[in-house]
Every structure is written in structure tokens, then in C-alpha cells.
Amino acid sequence: MTQVPAPGSVVVSDWHRCKDSKDYFSKILHKKRRKNFGLLESPVMSPLNAVDTVQYKIFISGKSGVGKTALAARLAGLNIPNMHYETTGIETTVVHWPVKLTENGRVLFFRLQLWDCGENALRRFDHLLPSCKEQVDAVLFLFSFTDRTSFEDLSNQIKKWTEPPLDRVVKLVIDLFMHCDVAEKDVRGFQMTSGLPVLRMGGEVSDGLGDVAPLLNCLAENLWHQDCVTVGSGSPEPIPATYG
Fold it and tell me: Where does it localize (predicted)?
């Protein structure tokens, strides 16, 4: 597994607060709320600010009811479901997120396709998990602070993604924090044992970007770092597409 980059070493972690990011983030915001994009839609930049885009497929893993669909909706700026329902098949959600590389100041738009599939559906239909694993770039393992069994189930979730070539897939653990059933020392112990970063996502949902920026920046940072390691250089070639 590729070593996890230090936060801020690959992408500027607080760039969404900087003045020079306004033109880019304005393309995914409308009146301080996130714009909704369909699967075939994308932000439109002016010709002077046209940037490359990189696309990645991310699978969200976790036990039933842990909040996978809600996490995808939150990251995309969509309405979070008020009631839990079991995802009956595969649901995909697209997130557009601009970043600025620390090394050279280059701006990239990340197009993150989040895949979410219900645990019962995965067990019932054998073809779903191979479809989720096909050409996947990262896996987000999710557990909830109100459900200790979701934390204890992490090792089983991770085992599904350890065989080659999935051992090279970026892996992050998402902690819906404010621990009740899961002690902080248990989270630290898991992080030391697994070597996987644990990111916190919870609390109030804001109209802006502050609640999702740390997670999306960390995801973008690990994905770009993985690509740099794979190609053996500091600048992987983006796909032949631009926002502009």
C-alpha cells in the first residue's frame, strides 16, 4: 500500500478560503449552496480559466444503515435523506471539486464518482461487488459513532479489498464522530494497526464548503499522490478533457 501523504503536502488544504480560488469554486456554488450536476454535466469555466479534469471512481463501504448514502449526498451538496432506506442496487453520485497542487500551483478539477451499494444487495447478487471493484480508484470505509458493530466490522470490510490489484487502491476510513459507542482510544488503536487515515465527518451541515472540504481535499490528495507513485513522476497526465 502506498504511503499516505502528509496533509497539505500535495494539495493546498485551505485553498477554498483563498481569494484566487473564487473563480473556480463559484462554478460549483450558487448563493453559497452547492450546484447539482447530472452524470453528464460539469462546471463550465471561462476560456481564460480552462483547467484539466481528472476522474476517479470511489466506492463507499460499510454495514447497512451506517450512512453511506447520506455521506455521498453530503459530499455532493445534495439533500440528505431524513429516513434510512436500504439501497437496493448500485447508486452513483458525482462530486466536482477543484484543487490547487502544492508543488507547482496547478489547478485541477476532480470529478469523483461515488458508488454506493446496499450490503443486502451485495450478498444477494454476486455480480454487484465485481462491478463495484472494476477500475475502482479508492474505497471509503464508513463507521458510525452510534453503532459499535459498524466499527468492529471494519476489518471484514477491508478484507474484501486487499487482494491484488486492489491492494494499491487508495483506502480511507470515515468516522461519523462524537463518539458514544466507540472510544477515542479504539479509533487511535485501529489507525495505528491498519495504517489507514481516519477522517471525521459529522455535526451540522453548512451551506458552504467548510464541512466537506477537509475530506474532499484529503481524498483528492491521496488519489493524486497514488497516481504520481504509479507513473513514477510528479505529474500524471490528466484525461483529455477540460472544464471550459
Answer: Cytoplasm, Cytoskeleton, Cilium basal body
